[in-house]
Amino acid sequence: MATRAGGSLNPISFLIFAFLCYHELTSLVAGASTIGIGGELNYSSNPLVSPGGNFTLGYFTLSNTNYSYFGIWYTNDEQARKVWVANPNTPLLDNSGVLTIDGTGILKITSGGNTILNISDQVGTGDVNATLDDSGNFVLMDETQRRLWESFDHPTNTLLPGMKLGQNLTAGQNWSLTSWLSDYVAASGAFTLSWEPSQESGQLVIYRRGEVYWNSGLLRDQSFDFMPEWNAGSDMFHYNISYVSNNDERFIIFDAAHQNLPMWILNPNGQILDAANSRSLGPADFCYGYESDNGCANSLVPNCRGHNDRFEQRRGYFVGNSDTGGYDDNSSLSLSDCMERCWNNCTCLGFTNNSNGTGCIIWSGNLEYREDNPNNTIINVLVRGNSPKGNKWWMWLIIVIAISLLMLFLGLFCYLRIKKHRREGEQKKLLHELTASDSFNNVNEIENGGREGHDLKIFGFASLVAATNDFSNENKLGQGGFGPVYKGRLPFQKGATRLEKTFEHH
Ligand SMILES: *[C@@H]1O[C@H](CO)[C@@H](O)[C@H](O)[C@H]1NC(C)=O
Ligand SMILES: *[C@@H]1O[C@H](CO)[C@@H](O)[C@H](O)[C@H]1NC(C)=O
Ligand SMILES: *[C@@H]1O[C@H](CO)[C@@H](O)[C@H](O)[C@H]1NC(C)=O
Ligand SMILES: *[C@@H]1O[C@H](CO)[C@@H](O)[C@H](O)[C@H]1NC(C)=O
Ligand SMILES: *[C@@H]1O[C@H](CO)[C@@H](O)[C@H](O)[C@H]1NC(C)=O
Ligand SMILES: *[C@@H]1O[C@H](CO)[C@@H](O)[C@H](O)[C@H]1NC(C)=O
Ligand SMILES: *[C@@H]1O[C@H](CO)[C@@H](O)[C@H](O)[C@H]1NC(C)=O
Ligand SMILES: *[C@@H]1O[C@H](CO)[C@@H](O)[C@H](O)[C@H]1NC(C)=O
Ligand SMILES: *[C@@H]1O[C@H](CO)[C@@H](O)[C@H](O)[C@H]1NC(C)=O
Ligand SMILES: *[C@@H]1O[C@H](CO)[C@@H](O)[C@H](O)[C@H]1NC(C)=O
Ligand SMILES: *[C@@H]1O[C@H](CO)[C@@H](O)[C@H](O)[C@H]1NC(C)=O
Ligand SMILES: *[C@@H]1O[C@H](CO)[C@@H](O)[C@H](O)[C@H]1NC(C)=O
């Protein structure tokens, strides 16, 4: 085969050629995983590859901008999503950037010999080098194997198995994720994801520009209240979370042994994406307005926004001769910032941003919306829902008034009934007591609704009040099962007989 393939080549030069090819190939496929003092990575050098080949560290640019960065990605991720970025907020505008370890052992990015960014801050003893390992961690170590700096302690927007999310209390360090500004700009965006410990457990919390935006609910037995997809159903979705809590640190790490490309990404829209299963674990959509289910934090809503008002992505445009709204080219603004502005500005009709996903273009005022944008760009239109707010508030008012009136009448009716019943009950009780005594014989006849006995007297309440001197204490005989017992003097019209009678006052 060699002779046939080699043709006119002599065997020795073929062997040398083959060796060189092999060497080139292996160094390409399984490049070095370590750089030492003076070592350099630039746009044209081979990237670092972890010993098992799982992760790659190198130079990259993002489409739609000419910004360049250094970062880490899964070697076999077709989208090469960056699990860590060395210089998210200090990109280079050309390809002059160099990742290196200087003579003092500091890991840094330089351009034309000038330091652009110090990545590590600690200085070790003697020789140092930095290695990309198979968990995706880039570790700077000195001769004593002391870890001077590691990328897992400085997360960007991605959490990998084995990375911590939480707090090191002794070091005063937080492990949290920060979203990118947009898919094309790796700079710190509007959202951060933290682990917030509580007594026995804790929860994931997403902040938007420093304010609570969403929470997962407490971690209970490998599940979160507001992450229904998490660990639901099939084994393929299964993650194991370990929560470590002691006096020095409180954090979670996760483990997903059966996954291809396991990672959580906090995306520019404030969602936690499970890359292994291509789904959102966090809020299903933006949290805004009256949304408070699924962990979304309640936010103040301007009066002009109805319950069902939503933003919809449409390929339309606004026309009109009045004010076309604002254009804020602040490239630190993300889509969610523009959404926030539009939602809270009652004249806003819709918005979009620059092709790199930053800045705000806001339409407001007296404009008309048309479908079919010849430029084929997507804009976010605020669509009014059928809400009970605004146009139907009077219906609610009528219902409330009707219910109040009904309650009032019902209350009055009941009050009168009870009052009447009370009085009747009192009279009946007195009557019963009087007729049950020895002095009155024809009780049965009365109780059976028969004729009134000749000896029977029925006393009015007023006469009893008079007889007992308004149920005075000196007339009180004691306390019976039905209430206090009084004696009284009753004036009798017929005859001179004075009757003393005890009866109960209830
Ligand atoms: C980039 O680094 C490689 C070594 O990794 C070196 O050969 C090359 O000259 C460097 N390129 C530039 C433009 O510095
Ligand atoms: C990127 O650089 C190229 C060549 O210099 C230029 O034509 C292009 O407009 C740049 N793109 C952006 C988004 O700046
Ligand atoms: C995004 O685009 C706008 C407008 O084209 C530009 O001013 C801004 O510098 C760009 N930002 C980035 C990070 O490329
Ligand atoms: C990097 O660190 C060195 C000291 O180690 C300091 O002199 C220099 O100003 C720093 N550079 C940047 C860009 O922070
Ligand atoms: C590296 O990748 C291989 C195959 O994809 C996998 O079996 C192994 O667990 C990975 N190692 C680490 C440390 O992630
Ligand atoms: C990296 O540094 C460590 C500690 O100094 C040393 O043991 C190891 O051999 C070095 N690796 C390389 C590839 O230089
Ligand atoms: C927390 O910080 C302390 C002090 O820097 C360090 O000794 C400890 O290893 C850290 N814990 C973790 C889990 O990184
Ligand atoms: C870490 O997070 C805690 C709680 O979220 C906060 O109080 C603290 O200020 C943060 N520390 C740092 C250094 O960011
Ligand atoms: C999760 O933990 C359980 C018990 O420790 C173990 O049986 C299971 O294999 C783990 N699953 C994964 C994906 O690591
Ligand atoms: C609402 O937006 C319009 C157009 O951008 C602007 O003129 C107005 O000041 C904004 N109102 C508030 C309250 O921000
Ligand atoms: C741009 O927006 C960011 C984020 O809202 C803000 O902090 C910054 O002050 C703004 N810059 C300017 C020049 O308005
Ligand atoms: C299409 O784009 C051009 C240039 O950006 C702009 O002037 C025009 O208004 C756009 N048309 C529509 C319907 O949005």
TrEMBL record:
Span of domain Bulb-type lectin: 33-153
Keywords, ordered alphabetically: Glycoprotein, Membrane, Signal, Transmembrane, Transmembrane helix
Residue stretches spanning the membrane: 393-418
Span of domain Apple: 304-386
SUPFAM superfamilies recorded: alpha-D-mannose-specific plant lectins (SSF51110), Protein kinase-like (PK-like) (SSF56112)
Family annotation (SMART domains): B_lectin (SM00108), PAN_AP (SM00473)
InterPro entries reported for this sequence: Bulb-type_lectin_dom (IPR001480), Bulb-type_lectin_dom_sf (IPR036426), Kinase-like_dom_sf (IPR011009), Pan_app (IPR003609)
Record keyword Membrane present: yes
Keyword match Transmembrane: yes
Signal peptide segment: 1-31
Gene3D superfamilies (alphabetical): Bulb-type lectin domain, Phosphorylase Kinase, domain 1
PANTHER family: BULB-TYPE LECTIN DOMAIN-CONTAINING PROTEIN (PTHR32444), CURCULIN-LIKE (MANNOSE-BINDING) LECTIN FAMILY PROTEIN (PTHR32444:SF128)
Name this polypeptide is given: Bulb-type lectin domain-containing protein
Source organism per UniProt: Nyssa sinensis
